[in-house]
Amino acid sequence: MTNILLILQFTILYGTVLSLVAFGGMFSEHSGIINIALEGIMVIGAIAGAVVLALCQRAVDAATMSAGTVQFLTFMQANPGFIVVLSILAAALAGGVYSLLLAFASINLKADQTIGGTALNLLAVALAIVIAKSINMTYLTNSANPQVRYVNSAFKIQILENPRFEISWFFIIALIALIAAYIGLYKTRFGLRLMSCGEHPQAADSVGINVYKFRYIGVLISGILGGIGGLAYVVPSVSTWNFEQGVTGFGFLALGVMIFGQWKPLRIFGAAMFFGLFRAIANMSDTLFPTLVMNGFTTNIFNMLPFIASMIILALTSKSSRAPKAEGIPYDKGLR
Amino acid sequence: MKNNFWKVLGGWFKKTAQNIGRWFKSLFVSMDDKEPKLRTLMNSPKTLSFVSSIICIIGGLLVGYLIIILIDAKNATSIFGSILKGGFANPYGAGYGLGNQLAYTAPLIMVGLSVLFAYKTGMFNIGVAGQYTLGAFGALYCAIVLNAPWYVCILAAMLLGAVWGAIPGLFKALFQVNEVITCIMFNWIGLYMVNDLMSSKITFTRVINDNLTISSMFNRGGANTWSLATVNKSSLLPDWGLGELFSGSSMSPSKVSIAIIIAIVIAVVIQILLNKTTFGYELRACGKNKNASKYAGINDKSNIILSMTIAGALAGIGAALLFLTDIQQFPKSTTSLSSLAFNGIPVAFMASLNPIGSIFAAFFVAHISEGAGLLTGTTFSKEMANVFTGIIIYFCAFAPLVIEQLSKRKNRLEMQMLEEADNAKPKEEDGKEVNL
């Protein structure tokens, strides 16, 4: 029973991350921009959120120790939820701003979206390490290490006490995002216009839709969701994150989830939970299958499984792919 | 007789001087109905791509400098300076620093070649990291477990890298799965697989000497693989005296070896293969227009697989050229992909996809990496170099396009001006000619 609950908890944890980021990718691709940079956007969101979290907590601690009278700090101390909101906002903002770099390069300058996205991925990890080290050095631990430390208890909602079962606030956000994505894409004028930009931008432009604007919005939404997804991966599970490892390929996995989900919100949510289950099993392989692990079926192999599974699924489904037709092609008004 | 000789010589000099003069004149002025040569050179695609690379690099450096200022304004100039100085600022002497820089240049050339070779066939090989990891495993397995000499290690690395490169090609050719996704997934599969193989599966016992018997690929501390100098000297790449040449004042020789020579030779071979052979022509045709080349009778599927296989082999050799110099060891159970392998992408694009250019681009990347590696005791770390290369490749994504557009517009404007000038000429000129 405990094990099942634990698997469920981990599944929701990882499924949340994957669905948030895959929704982001979905919005971007429906507008016609391939967002390979999701991995980098996650890293930037994670570092921004984690740093804000750590700095706020440090400020609160310092205020408690010196019995300071700064009203804002005492307010934060009394409402730990405020710090949660603040750090999530920081992650969303950072992800959104970072994604604008991709939007600018691929929409205005008609750059190759894959190269631009790859550049942002490479830059994000390096930038995160530099920022983590310098923040640690100046404000937190006085040593230049790439690990950020924070307290993550305020992010969790305890549902069962014994046996313990918790979900994070991010799961609620993911559910809201799911509903918003479903309604937003299929039931509103905005969503249909967005999708038309990814299917046939020339036709969309001919009826007066501003393709550039909608592509910018698509990428921006993906940046915001990707940033939140990055924080959702880093913060609820552990209390220290080493930014040298980025987000261990979860952004790319989310792209696989998005393709598996055929660019449709409900299917993506299902696919994300399915992959989350894989990852949960990998995390708990030691306790779940002690005999398998003893016989050389190590955590490494379990870690490989989601990637292998996504490759098999991609190979089987790629021929009937429902990818937006114009994705990856810069929109040139002159070619209308 | 004597007079005649001087006459001939004088005539020859005069003619040569005239020819040289004409040549110089033709650089700037249009002659024989050809436009000035300097303008031809300026407008040639090679010059444009060279200029755009330089602009990308300068832009990348400037933005990187801004980031440094944002984080630490007080020491910004000195930090930026020491990154730019690269290995030359090594505390053990410029020779030593330059040697190590060359040791890192060799694998960077290889990963850069890997990316550009695949790109010529229209494939974006972002799977270099996986191919590189497999290559590292092949080389180190042969060196540590099998006690093999260096050339066998390189071959093993090449083979494993080729296998890992062929997979995305196969997925693309058989199932139409985008190679970018396959490459990325197989990066992680490769990393976890190598972690798994290295840490537990391999059991062996090798007696090195009376004091040392090894039974694992990892050293006593357990964090990295054994140093090859300790367990198998024959697997180290020979240095042909290069190490002595590039050594510091009171230091042991640097880690430069024939790796750099091998890498440059391979770059030249790739240049010839791509531009002077039918095979290379077919590969490039596939990259330019898949359907047209199919129509012309080129088998695009086998070309895709073959080009990815070769790209993988190049990345594998790159890993061997790094680890067989013993400049660093493979870490145990790492959860991050090699950033050196990913630097193949900036190298390839900074070189404007030119194999020979990738030698210089790799040297530049190694240069700023070495420079950033010396930033100890500051808030900045060696990752600052990756910030620079990241920004540079971001610029590389669009700079060539923008510059091409600008030069096209400039040419159009010039054409317009010429036409206008023609139109503005008095019409009587035609009449004069008739009268004459």
Explain the overall architecture:
The complex is a heterodimer of chains A (336) and B (436). By secondary structure, chain A is mainly alpha-helical. Chain A has one domain: Orthogonal Bundle (ABC transporter involved in vitamin B12 uptake, BtuC). Chain A has helices at 2-31, 38-65, 71-78, 80-108, 113-140, 169-186, 189-199, 201-206, 211-234, 250-260, 265-283, 285-288, 290-294, 299-317; strands spanning 147-149, 156-160, 165-168, 240-242. A two-stranded antiparallel ribbon of chain A has the order 1-4. Chain B contains 19 helices and 2 strands. In chain B, strand 1 (206-209) and strand 2 form a beta hairpin. The longest helix of chain B is centred in the C-terminal third of the chain and has 41 residues, at 384-424. Chain B is globular, with a radius of gyration of 27 Å. At the A-B interface, helix 5, helix 10 and helix 14 of A face helix 7, helix 8, helix 16 and helix 18 of B.
